[in-house]
Amino acid sequence: MKEDVIKKNDSLFMKTYARFPAVMVKGSGCWLQDIDGRNYLDFLSGIAVCSLGHNHPDVTEAICRQAAKLNHVSNLYYTIPQTEVAELLVNNSFADRVFMANSGAEANEAAIKLARKYGGEGRYKIICLEGSFHGRTMATVSATGQNRFHKGFEPLLQGFCHVQPEDLDQLEKMIDHTTCAVLCEPVQGEGGVRPLSRLYLKGIRLLCDRYNLKLIFDEVQVGMGRTGSLFAYEQFGIEPDIITSAKALGNGIPIGAMLARESVAEAFQPGDHAATFGGNPVACAAAKATIRIMLQNGFLKGVKEKGTYLQEQLNTVVEEFPKLARQARGMGLIRGLVLTPEALSSGTDIVNKMFKQGVLINFAGGEALRFLPPLIISKEEIDKMIHTLKSVLAEITVE
To answer: Per the count of CB atoms within 10 A, which of 15, 24, 56, 383 is most buried?
Structure first.
């Protein structure tokens, strides 16, 4: 039966994904089950999406309750779920206004358009970072600082330039009369789990203030509790002007949001931007339930504690396998195990071996094994992943 599904799928869909040979049929908590009844410990969370685990009962109930009342109404009208989610986001961030979208790429598109609109005529350039990832649309792939995502899609859109992270002098030299904003991830996820330093981000904030630029934080992957605070910026001692969110916002139901200060948001007027399904009532019901759970007493503190524990366990991997792993890095429950130069070619092989052992991870930025477990992960489940990882690494040989 599995083979039939895979064969039919491969004959119908464009070949945009290199899929693993598993047909997932259900999930619960931190575990997935395939059509053959095999269980997998999910250390990817749908790539930082199912942060409350699969099929969280409160989120499922909220979805079903809303679906029985109202599935969709255009943004020509008001809805209660949309209003409630916007209120939660504004009350728990620096922002004053929200634009609802359906994905991270859409949220970033909205942020790019808002920054350009605010900048005014002739101010359109956005400075981005090497190693960044901002989405797959033409604007967001142009903003992305990884050449592998550009190949085959040139010419990219004008108005984006890229600088090396942690080099404020280089960034300042790129600022000119056409620059309107700086766009960055506080922690580069697809770039190999690279946290930017507190000092560097503070320096960017100061440069933006000095040159009247807007600072945009892409928190699509690292926001919504992933780092141990609702938004990652809270741990860096600065505030952006615009922030984007998606992925975990609906715990698996597609939804995205772009948030901004009042002074910036007012640049958008009716007709400037829109999304047919943005703020969909069912998606907002899921988001409302998700945010409320994350804001419960002790939840985010627990994420930090488990993140520290995961880091400590990954450090033991570095100690035991110095020829394969050179560093563990990250924040909260987004962690990366950086492979040695000699082991980089084994990254995909390690991921495949982990899959065969029933643990789901991936290889990010061509240099780090990435771990994005649900935020409800237990220490026992972390131990299970580490045990499996060590057994897999013991089979890897490098020259």
So the answer is: 56
User: Residue 155, class by beta-carbon neighbours within 10 Å (0-12 exposed, 13-18 middle, 19+ buried)?
Assistant: exposed
Residues 6+ positions from 255 with CB-CB distance below 8 Å? 100, 101, 102, 246, 249, 279, 280, 283, 284, 286, 287
Sheet containing 325-331: which strands, arranged edge to edge?
325-331, 334-339, 368-371, 362-364
Question: Which pLDDT band, with edges at 50, 70 and 90, does 399 fall under?
Answer: confident
CA distance 334 to 274: 32
Closest CA to 242 of 219, 269, 212: 219
User: By the 8 A CB rule, do 26 and 41 touch?
Assistant: no
pLDDT, tens digit, for every residue of 56-89? 999 999 999 999 999 999 999 999 999 999 999 9
DSSP letters, 140-179, are: HHHH---GGGTTTSPSPPSSEEEE-TT-HHHHHHH--TTE
With H, G, I as helix, E, B as strand and everything else as coil, classify residue 226: coil
CA angle 266, 269, 270 (to 5 degrees): 145
Q: Which of 196, 204, 192, 127 is nearest to 165 (CA)?
A: 196
pTM confidence score: 0.96
Instruction: Give the three-state DSSP class for 262.
Output: helix
Residue 54 DSSP code: B
* φ, ψ (nearest 5 deg) of residue 378: -100, 160
Torsion angle of C-alpha atoms 377, 378, 381, 386, degrees rounded to 10: 90
- Hey, which residues does 329 pair with through a beta bridge? 336
Distance of alpha carbon 179 from alpha carbon 199, whole angstroms: 22
Predicted confidence at residue 290, as pLDDT, reads: 98
User: What is the structure's pLDDT at 398?
Assistant: 84
**Tokens 């060590």, residue?**
390
CB 6 within 8 A of CB 35: no
Over residues 97-147, the pLDDT tens digits come to: 999 999 999 999 999 999 999 999 999 999 999 999 999 999 999 999 999
How many DSSP H helices and E strands does the chain contain? 13, 17
CA gap 28, 26 in Å, rounded: 7
